[in-house]
Amino acid sequence: MSAQNLSILDTLAFNDEGYMTDRTQWTEEVANAIAEDEGITLTERHWVVIHFARKVFAETKDSPTLRQITKQTDVSMKEMYQLFPNGPAKKAAMIAGLPKPTGCI
Amino acid sequence: MKKTLLILGAGTGGTMVANKMAARLDADEWHIIVVDRDETHYYQPGFLFIPFGIYDAADVIQPKRNFLPSAVETVFSDIEIIEPDQNRVRLVKDQRVIPYDYLVIATGSHIQPEQIEGMTDSGWRKNIFDFYTCEGATALAQFLKTWDGGRMVINIAEMPIKCPVAPLEFAFLADWYFQERGMRDRVEIIYATPLSGAFTKPRATVALGDLLARKGIQTVADFNIAEVDNNRQAIISYDEREISYDLLVTIPTNMGADVIGRSGMGDELNFVPVDKQTLQSKKWDNIWVIGDAGNAPTSKAGSVAHFMLETVTENLKRHMDGLEPLPTFDGHANCFIETGFDKGLLIDFNYEVEPLPGRYPLPGVGPFPLLEESRVNHWGKLAFRWMYWNLLIKGRPMPVSNEMSMAGKWS
Fold this sequence. Notes:
The complex is a heterodimer. By secondary structure, chain A is an all-alpha fold. Chain A is built from six helices and no strands. Chain B is α/β, with parallel strands linked by helices. Chain B folds into three domains: about 5-110 and about 255-320, 3-Layer(bba) Sandwich (FAD/NAD(P)-binding domain), CATH 3.50.50.60; about 110-255, FAD/NAD(P)-binding domain (3-Layer(bba) Sandwich), CATH 3.50.50; about 335-390, no CATH class. In chain B, about 25% of the residues lie in helices and about 25% in strands. Chain B has eight helices and 24 strands. In chain B, a hairpin with a 4-residue loop joins strand 15 (about 225-230) and strand 16. In chain B, helix 1 packs parallel to helix 7. The termini of chain B are far apart.
C-alpha cells in the first residue's frame, strides 16, 4: 500500500467490516484506494460494476446482490469472481462506498 | 355490485389472510376469492423430519379446503398472468378472468434446482436430493435407509432461502441419525454455504458455528456453487474450489412463483418489491404481499408470515376505508432450531435486533431458553405442528405477539 493511499483511507470513516460510514466522502480516487487495499487494481470492467452498484443504491437504497449485477449488466458470474475475488457482491459494494448488501437474511 | 378481494396462493400466508378477511369484511359488500394450483396443503416445517423417518408424508399433508372458510370462493387453477395495471388476473382453468378491487399475493417461494448447471442431470434423486419438497424429502428418506456411508455434503446454493435455519437443522439431525444407526464413523458431514459462517446474524453465527464444530461437522464458508459434476461427483464453486461428495443434499436457489416473473412484477428472483413495514406493493397501491412472495429483508418462513398477518389485514382494511397504511411490521422472525438428541434451540429477532441469548417467555408453556440447546425447545417445535394446523392457518390467536419484545433477552 502506498503512503499516499494510506493517507486517503486514514481521513475516512469505516465500520468494523470495512464499509464506508459516510457515503458522501466517496470519490473515484477513494474507490481506487479501497480497491488497492483489498489487492485489486481497478479496470474498466470493475467500473461497469461499481457504477451499476451506485445506480442501484441511488434508486433502491440497497446494494445490489450478485444475481442482480450479473442479470442487469454484461458481467458474468465467472467474471465477477475474477474481478472481485472472495465475495464479489460484498467487495463491489465496499469499493463503491456502499453498505454491505442486505440480500442475505 | 360486490367488490372483490382476490388472494393468490393458499399456503400459510394466503390461507391466514382468507380466514382473517372473511371474518372482517361484510359478506354483502365483499366477495373473497382464493386461487391456488394445488389442492394439497403442505406443512412445510415438517419436511425436515421426513428424511430421518421421524415424520412421513402423511404427517405433513391435508386438503387445503379443510382450512378455507366456506364464505370464500376457492378456485384450483394455474394462473396465466396477473395484469396489475388492469386490476385483473387471468386463470388457465376455463380461461377465466377475475377482475379485482384488492389483490393479495401469497404465491410463496420455490426451489429451482435447474438454476444450477448439472444439478438435475443423472444424479438427481439418485445421490443428489433436496428436502424442500415432499417428494425430495421422501426420496432422501428412502436413500438413507440403505446408505452405508461416505461423504455427505450439505450445500446452500444462494441466499435468500426459505427457512434459513433448516439446512443447519438438517446437519444436526443427520449427525444424530447416523450416530443412532451406529455408522457416524463412516459418514463425513460437510456444510458448504455461500455465507461467511453458519448463519446470517453475528451472535447466532458464533453459537451455531460452535455447535457444528462440536458435532464434527466441517463448515466450508463463502462457497458459491457454479456447477455439479455428476460424473466426478463434485460441486464446483465460481472461484474454482471443488468438494467431492457421495451424497449431495442441496438447498437449491429459491425463487418466487414463475407467474410473478411472467407478469413483470418481480425482482431478479421473482420476489415482489414491497414496503418492508406496511407490506404494500411498492408499485400498486391496491396490492399487498404476505410471506415468502415479497422481498422484505427478513427470513422467509411461516412464523414470519404469521407475524405479517396483522399488518397486512389491518392495512388492507384501512386502505379500503380510505386511511393510510401503518408501518407496523418490524421484521419479526422466530425459529425453533432442531439440534438433535431431542434438543433444540430458539432464536427470536427482527429487522433491527439480532438473535440474542436469554429466555423467551410464553404463557403456560415457556419460558424457552434463547440461543441455547434445551429439551423444552425441541418439544416446542413438535408442539408447533398442532398449533399450525389448529390455530395458525385458521387465523386463530396464537400465544405469541407479532412485534418482537426485548423481555427476557440479554443484550
